[in-house]
Amino acid sequence: MSLAASNRKLLIKLLLGAVAMFAFAIFVLPPIYTLFCEITGLGGKTKGEYTAVDVRVDTSREVTVRFVASNNALMPWEFRPTMDKVVVHPGEPTEITYFAHNTTSEDMVSQAIPSLVPNNMADYFHKTECFCFDNQPLAAGEQAELKLVFIVDPDLPASVNSMTLSYTLFDITDRTAVPVAQIQ
Amino acid sequence: MAHGPATLADGWKAYISRWVFTTNHKDIGTLYLWFSFAMFILGGAFAMIIRAELFQPGMQLIKPEFFNQMTTMHGLVMVFGAIMPAFVGLANWMIPLMIGAPDMALPRMNNLSFWILPFAFAILTSTLFMEGGGPNFGWTFYAPLSTTYAPESVNFFIFAIHIMGASSIMGSINIIATVMNMRAPGMTYMKMPLFVWTWVITAFLLVAVMPVLAGAVTMMLMDINFGTSFFNAAGGGDPVLFQHVFWFFGHPEVYIIILPAFGVVSQIIPTFSRKPLFGYSSMVYATAAIAFLSFVVWAHHMFTVGMPIAGELYFMYATMLIAVPTGVKVFNWITTMYKGSLTFETPMLFSIAFVILFTFGGFTGLMLSIAAADMQYHDTYFVVAHFHYVMVAGAVFSGTAAIYYWLPKWCGKMYNETMGQVQFWVAFIGFNIAFMPQHFLGLAGMPRRYADYGLQFADWNMVSSVGAFIYGGAQIMLLINVILTIRNGKPVADEKVWEGAEGLEWTVATPAPYHTFEKPPEVK
Q1: What's this model's pTM, rounded to 2 decimal places?
Q2: Is residue B181, in this structure, part of any structural domain at all?
Q3: Residue scoring higher pLDDT (B2 or B517)
Q4: Interface predicted TM-score (ipTM)
Q5: I want to staple A162 with a disulfide (CB 3.0 to 4.6 A). Which of A59, A64, A139, B355 is the partner?
Q6: Which of A21, A26, A45 minimises the CB distance to B219?
Q7: Which residue from A83, A137, A128 is spatially nearest to A106, judged by alpha carbons?
Q8: Total domain count for chain B?
C-alpha cells in the first residue's frame, strides 16, 4: 500500500473513532448515567409509581418524614406542603398533600421534581400515588391540593430514622403544546 | 524546481500567501507557536486584571460580572489557546525532524487545523463585547450556570469550542499518522525520542476525549435552544450528569496538557546532563499508564457532589495510583542528572524548575485526592494553587524550555544566554511569589472565582498579586529575547547546537532548511 493510501486509511479510522466518541457522549453516557442512578438508587431520585405487594407494617419503628418545597428560579406560584413532617411506621401507606396556587393571571403548567435525602435511600421510599407523576396545570388564579401517598419500606436500614422529601416546582408552560384547559 | 519559501522581498502578497496556504510542517509549527504566544499574552492580560482586582479587598477596578468573565476567559484562553496550540506547534516542528520524515503525513489537513483556530478565538473573544457579556460560568462551564443562567453569548462560546475541538482532533490524527507511517527506516517505536512518544499518546487521548467535550457542549446547545433536558431537572435531566461528562473529558485533558511537557524535559535533561535518558522504556510505559489511568479517575473533581462512600473511595485510590507512574518519571529525570556533567543553560534551568515545581504540584494533587480532606479544599484557592503549579510551572515552564532549546535550530541564531537566565530567575521567583501564598489562602478557606474577599485574606492576596505582575513581566522578557534573537542573534553554524544533544533533529543543517529528510536518513 502506498504511503498516501495508508495515511488516508488511518485518517478514516481515527475520524470514525472520534465520531464514535461523540456519539458515545451524547447517546450512551446520559442513559448509562440514568440507569446507574436507577439501579443503585443514588442521586436521591425517587422512582415512579409503586404497587404495594406487602402489607407488613413494622409498628415497632417510627420514621420521621419531612417535606420541603421550593420554586425553581422565576416560578411565581405559591407552593408548599400542608404539613412540615409526619411520623410513620414503615410499611404503612400515608397520605399527605401539597398546596399549589397559580398566583399569576396566566394559565400555566408546572412539573414537580422530587429529591430525597439521604440520597442513597431513594430505593426505600415508595410512592403509590403522586401528583409528580404527571405535570400540574393550573388556570390563572387557580388553587389545588396535590395528593401524595407513600410507603416507607420496612427494609429501611435501622440507622435511618428520618428522611426529607423535597419537591422543586419548575415552569414547563413553554414546553407543553396543549392548552391548560385540555390537560385538565 | 528548487525554490525556498516566499519572503518579504518577494512582495507582501506572495509572503501572505505563503503563510495562508502553507503545507510545510515548519511554517505551520511557527504559526502555531506565534498564535499560542499571542493567546498567552491575551490570557495573561486577563490574569493581570484578575490579580489587580484582588490586590486589595473590596471592589476597585472592575464589576463582579466582568470579574467572572475574566476568570472564565483566562482559563479557556490559556488551556485551549495558549498551552495546547503551543505543544501542537512544537510537535509540528519537531516530530518530522525527530523521526526523519520529510513532512507531516496530511499536510493540507495540517493547514486547515491551524487556520480554523484564529476564527475560534476571534469568536470567543468577541463575546466580551456583546450585550450581556462573555462566558461568565467558569472554564468548567457547569450546567445550569452555562445553560439556564448563561448570557446570550453562550452560543458563540459553544461554536468556538466546537471549532477548537475539530482543530485538535485533526492535529492529533495528523500526528498519529505521521508517527505510525512516516518513520525513517530503522526508527523503531522503541527508538523514538520521548517527545514523540508522549505526543503520540497525547494524540490518542485527544482523539478519544475532544469529541466528548464536543458532545457536552452539543447537549448544552440543545438544552438551550431546542428544548431537550439533558441537564435540566424540570424535564427529567440532571445537572450532575454535566459534571460527569465534562470531567470524563476534563481529566484526560489535564494529561493532554502535561504529557508533551514531560516529553520536552525528557529531551532537555539528557542533553545538559550529557547522559542518555535513564530508564527510557519505563518512561514510555509510565506515560501509557498515566494516559490509561486518566480515563478512570474523573470523579475526583466532584467529591462534594454527593457520591456514595464506595465511589469516593474508588476515585480516591485510583487517583493516588497515578502518583506511581508519575513518580517513576520524576525518579528517571533525577537519575538522569545523577553523576552527569551538568551545565545550567536556560533550557536546563527551566527543566530542573519544572521537575521541582511539578513534583510540588503533584503532591498538592495527592492532598486533594483524599476525598475526606477535599471537602475542605474543594473550590478554594488551594485548588487554584495546585493546578497552577502543574499547568504553569509544568506546561508553561517546559514550553519555555523548549523554545530556548530549539530556537537556535529554528532560526540559526543563538539567544542571549544572560537575558535567558535572568528571565528564568524572574519567572521562577515571580511564579512562586504568586502561587505559593494561594495555598495558604485556600487552606484558610478563601473560595475561588470571587471578586472580593474577607479582610483576613488581604496580605497574602497582595503578595500573590505582586508575584503575578513579576511573572507577567518575565513573559515580556521572553518575547523580547526571542525577537532580538531572530533579528540579530549571534549566528550558529554547528548542526549540533548543544554539545550533549542527541537525535536526528541535530543532524540537519542549522538553521533547519525549509525541506529536510527528503531522502530518509538511515537509523542504526
Answers
A1: 0.89
A2: yes
A3: B517
A4: 0.88
A5: A64
A6: A26
A7: A137
A8: 1
